[in-house]
Design brief:
Number of strands: 0
Shape: elongated
Number of helices: 3
Radius of gyration: 21 Å
Distance between the termini: 72 Å
Largest sheet: none
Length: 76
Amino acid sequence: MWREVWATYGGRITGVTTGIILGLLYFIVGFWDMVFFAFLLCIGYTVGKMKDEQRGPIFPWQRLSEWLMERWRPFK
C-alpha cells in the first residue's frame, strides 16, 4: 500500500516535507540564513548528481590552466 502511495504522490510528499523543513528553518534562523542554506543544498545536489552521472568535473581545470598559461606567459 505504501509503495502505491509513494509511486503516485512521491513528488508531492517530498515537496511538502521540504516546505515544512524550510519553513521551520525560516522561523528558527531567519530568511537570509535559510536562503544561504538552500543555496548550499542546491550546490551539493548538483555536484552529487554530476558525480552519479559521471559527467566529469564542473569546471574544466585542465583547459582553464592551459588557457591561462597561454594567455599570461611570463616571458614572451
